[in-house]
């Protein structure tokens, strides 16, 4: 039961007040007997004493056995009826007290259940946060592995377009230096490709990416692996922060350039049709 459904006439009991009465009721437990039992016993003994004096003065204890049985029964019925009513009333109040304490015990259980539910919710949030952290740590390890793979693919694409097999515009020593840096910086070739595709005309940029079957294959592999990484990021990242970081990285910008030129080739070009010179600046 939540705060909205709980009626004003039945508020949550004060926990300290309930604790003072939370032990199970027993009129004979503790160091003293319930005062109602004591009072009932005193009245009962006094009443029996009065009855004894009455019998002794009116009939006599020696002659009571000679009285007719119906007269004795009527006398006992009238004599003990007040005591029966007295103990009925005392029993009612004792039972009422026990019911009150049972109610308090139930309320105490309700309070403890609320505490347990709150603690369980806190633990659930902690477990959820820990699981999310573990998932993100796992994704970061995957990201680093795929990042190295993308860097190598981009290196082969750069070598195909700018090395000796391509235009030959970049000296072999420079390319070797870039490969040496790849272990520490997996995005080194992606940044080089960004310079080529952003700083040069669209026709040349298209040739760099899709000018030959080999270059097209490298771009397709790059797109395939990068999109798998994005899909994995969606499974690990509820708020999209990691996906945005991927798209904002050098690999992400190269990926968007590849999609742009694949889906919208410059005028005069058709995707996967190689009827042009791949290394010219026209």
Short description:
The chain has helices at residues 15-19, 35-58, 69-162, 172-181, 188-199, 202-210, 213-236, 241-247, 250-263.
Overview of this protein structure:
With 282 residues, this protein is mainly alpha-helical. It folds into two domains: 114 residues; 130 residues, no CATH class. The protein contains nine helices and no strands. Helix 5 packs across helix 9 and helix 7 crosses helix 9. The longest helix is centred in the middle third of the chain and has 94 residues. The chain is rod-shaped, with a radius of gyration of 47 Å.
What is the average of the pLDDT values? 81
What's the end-to-end separation, in Å?
A: 76 Å
Biggest β-sheet, characterized? none
Helix content: over 70%
Uncertain regions spanning at least 5 consecutive residues: 1-13
Count, helices:
9
Number of domains: 2
- Supply Rg: 47 Å
Please tally the β strands and state the result: 0
Order of SSEs? HHHHHHHHH
SSE order and pairing:
Elements: H1 15-19, H2 35-58, H3 69-162, H4 172-181, H5 188-199, H6 202-210, H7 213-236, H8 241-247, H9 250-263
Key features of this structure:
mainly alpha; 2 domains
